[in-house]
Amino acid sequence: MQSLKPMNFKFILLVSFCLYGYIVQAQPNESFLFKGEWGFSGGINQYFGDLNPNNNFNVLNPSFNVYYRWNISKNFGLRFDVQYDKLSYSDQDNNQDYIEYRTRNLSFQNHTASIQAGIEFNFLKFTPGSYRNRFTPYLGLHLGLLYTNPFALDKNEEPVFLRPLITERLDLNDASEKYNVFSIIVPIRIGFKYNITEKVNIFGEVAYVFTPTDYLDDVSKNYAGIDAFSNNSTAAYFQDRSVGQIYGVKGKQRGTDSFSDTYFTARFGFSFNNLISCCPVPSKIRYY
Hints:
single chain, 288 residues, mainly beta, Porin, eight-stranded antiparallel beta barrel, two-stranded antiparallel ribbon, 11 strands, 12% helix, 42% strand
């Protein structure tokens, strides 16, 4: 057999070297542990409740979130969130039964903050740096604690916190009628993420947040009536802000406690992968 010429041998060696370099570059994550990711996002939210019983999407407010996800397998992770949402609505914003709501004239704003923890499931294998596994939709179920303290603006456009006023009080001397400033929440989240570099992802997600409280808006049951506020003109004003006629008659329906207040969020953001260098594992990326 005729031996290879030196030029042919050098050419084969060069091609082999280039091919090896391409393979190594195409699998950069085989020498890393993918421990998790942290991220931040911003977007909008929409409140639903006694002032917006028809679930209108017409008063959008800012929503911000930071989180860390700790991978416990290729698909499952534990996620921890800190989130801010401004919630607000006014009877003037309601475009159904307009005259009735305009007459009732209630409104609120609420700067809420929450901490959340839960489990998140990636529907597809997600491998940072991979060309084949760089996208996945995901689903999350969380439990959280929400700080809520609604307020409204007085005639001088100054904020007045509504909880201390006990606007739906039954007993003037019963301080226990104040609702709690903390509430359990259950956010259900669905989203997608896409890996753009080995360490950076973009993502978008929406969430529906269930709460057991009916007082994100300070409206739940019935009017207490003007006599319940004889020594507090501020409370009397905020329990009944009706225009054109008196709505605040004792026992008249002010809201409805048949369902709790909820809200919806939608955000886009960036996340950063926590990759720990380790010995190469052929054709496999490790998670923990």
